[in-house]
Specification:
- The protein is 29% helix and 25% strand.
- Strands 3-2-1-7-8-11-9-10 form an 8-stranded mixed β-sheet, with helices on both faces.
- Strand 1, helix 1 and strand 2 form a beta-alpha-beta unit.
- Helix 6 packs parallel to helix 7.
- The radius of gyration is 17 Å and the shape is globular.
């Protein structure tokens, strides 16, 4: 398999497009987007809503799942809440909600890189498979400059660190004031936007408060999950963890430069 050897500065991978709120933001900022969505109903919707960027090549939609090996797997499509749909039964069928099972083809993250190159930023939000993506990145010789992942427990920071990332930012997804406060962008064009619970917020150098590994572990244990895995935030809160490798540009972010 011929894998890319360089990062494409204008490219973003949106892994778990859902209804496309994040993809809309990335496109408005001037990035090319490769979106991955396993839910066939959402793929139909996205094909219509994003017909123009799909036609002119600014967006590519991959109607697949991402797993540790290629193949066709049962996908638990949650009818009550499509954010919960997953290849993992416990995720897709949670809370005795209504669901259906559909067969969906899956590829690996290495294959996605082979097809489209390595992105500058990769958003990972694929219920129950986030850890699989990070474990696969460990075995690749190239990685995105920035990634974000919905936290999946005590191992989240360590999984990102094992990929080679050494700076982390833990971001609330209930209160997006940290993202809406950005008034000029270091990542693409500035886009006026009030973020909600349906999108992920800003990314890359627009994200504040980058921490070392040790600081991130301590903050995660204090704000997100205790060392005994007790969930600490109020009901309805959840967190994304952003990660990168230290660069002088991060110091400029910290100083407001």
């Amino acid at each position: 398999m011929n894998l890319p050897t360089e990062v494409h500065r204008d490219l973003i991978f949106d892994l778990g497009v859902n209804h496309g709120e994040d993809t809309e933001f990335y496109l408005a900022k001037g990035f090319r987007v490769v979106g991955v969505e396993a839910d066939p109903r959402l793929v139909e919707e996205l094909t219509i809503v994003y017909a123009d960027p799909l036609a002119d090549g600014r967006m590519i939609l991959e109607p697949v799942g991402l797993m540790d090996a290629p193949g066709v797997l049962p996908f638990y499509r949650n009818i009550t809440c499509d954010h919960w749909s997953s290849f993992v039964k416990e995720y897709g069928c949670r809370g005795d909600t209504e669901f259906e099972i559909v067969e969906v083809p899956c590829i690996t993250i290495a294959e996605l890189f082979r097809r489209h190159g390595c992105p500058h930023y990769m958003k990972i939000d694929i219920e129950g498979a986030d850890r699989i993506i990070l474990e696969a990145l460990v075995n690749l010789d190239i990685r995105p400059t920035f990634v974000s992942v919905e936290e999946f427990g005590l191992g989240t920071i360590d999984a990102l660190h094992s990929v080679g990332y050494d700076r982390f930012s833990i971001r609330s997804q209930l209160d997006k004031s940290w993202a809406s406060a950005v008034r000029r962008s270091r990542e693409g064009a500035f886009v006026e936007r009030e973020f909600t619970q349906r999108d992920s917020g800003v990314f890359g150098l627009d994200v504040p408060e980058w921490l070392t590994y040790e600081e991130a572990v301590e903050t995660f244990h204090r704000r997100v999950r205790s060392p005994s895995n007790e969930w600490l935030p109020p009901p309805g809160e959840w967190y994304d963890v952003h990660a990168t490798v230290w660069s002088p540009a991060l110091d400029e972010v910290a100083s407001g430069g």
